[in-house]
């Protein structure tokens, strides 16, 4: 059912996804769908969760697969390009849920509610590990924390306040320079 729901979302849009359309598309009885997903929003939430988990795994695999000649800057740029494109894609599919998810993520980040595993909590350490020789900052824990907060809070702010920046050509470049400077500036500078 999730696959069918995802197909409908991606090809026909959020407005097309109803319990009736899902039943017709998947061949599953409406009563059976309700056993697993009491609402369409619950189904979409499950699809979003799967999407985020897959994006996290694919991003970490992409970091590890970067060529030997790649730099930390290249890795940061790839992570941000992938992440912002994903946010934009889901904003186009279901803008209301995307904004609610961004607000929820901010509550988690601020520890107002119990945290969950965000893809950035694994991606930043993977970047630092892959490009360890380029990370010059002495306090890697602090730099990692600041980078994590920047990579989680800023994209959410874009979704909530400035979604047009997600596709702006210079957004990734500006964020990449900021994170690169954070990780490569020595304490002596």
Radius of gyration: 19 Å
Q: How many helix segments?
A: 9
Per DSSP E runs of 2 or more residues, the count of β-strands stands at 0
Shape: elongated
DSSP helix fraction: over 70%
Arithmetic mean of pLDDT: 84
Low-confidence stretches are: 112-116
- Our measurement of the CA-to-CA distance between the termini, rounded to an integer number of angstroms, reads 55 Å
Instruction: State the order of secondary-structure elements, H for helix, E for strand.
Output: HHHHHHHHH
Largest sheet: none
Strand content: under 5%
The helix-and-strand class reads: mainly alpha
Number of domains: 2
Characterization of the model:
The chain is an all-alpha fold. It folds into 2 domains: 1-38, Homeodomain-like (Arc Repressor Mutant, subunit A, Orthogonal Bundle), CATH 1.10.10.60; 51-184. The chain is 72% helix and 0% strand. The chain is built from 9 helices and no strands. The protein has helices spanning 2-12, 19-26, 30-36, 40-65, 72-93, 95-109, 119-130, 140-161, 171-184. The chain is elongated.
């Amino acid at each position: 059912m999730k696959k069918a729901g995802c197909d409908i979302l991606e090809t026909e849009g959020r407005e097309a996804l109803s319990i009736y359309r899902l039943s017709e598309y998947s061949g599953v009885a409406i009563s059976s769908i309700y056993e697993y997903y009491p609402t369409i929003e619950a189904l979409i939430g499950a699809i979003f969760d799967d999407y985020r988990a897959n994006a996290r795994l694919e991003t970490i695999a992409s970091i590890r697969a970067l060529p030997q000649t790649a730099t930390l800057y290249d890795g940061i740029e790839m992570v941000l390009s992938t992440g912002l494109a994903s946010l934009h894609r889901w904003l186009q599919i279901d803008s209301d849920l995307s904004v609610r998810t961004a607000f929820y993520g901010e509550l988690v980040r601020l520890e107002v509610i119990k945290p969950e595993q965000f893809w950035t909590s694994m991606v930043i350490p993977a970047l630092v590990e892959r490009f360890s020789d380029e990370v010059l900052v002495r306090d890697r824990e602090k730099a990692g924390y600041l980078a994590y907060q920047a990579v989680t809070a800023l994209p959410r702010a874009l979704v909530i306040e400035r979604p047009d920046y997600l596709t702006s050509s210079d957004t990734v470049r500006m964020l990449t320079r900021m994170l690169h400077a954070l990780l490569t500036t020595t304490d002596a500078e």
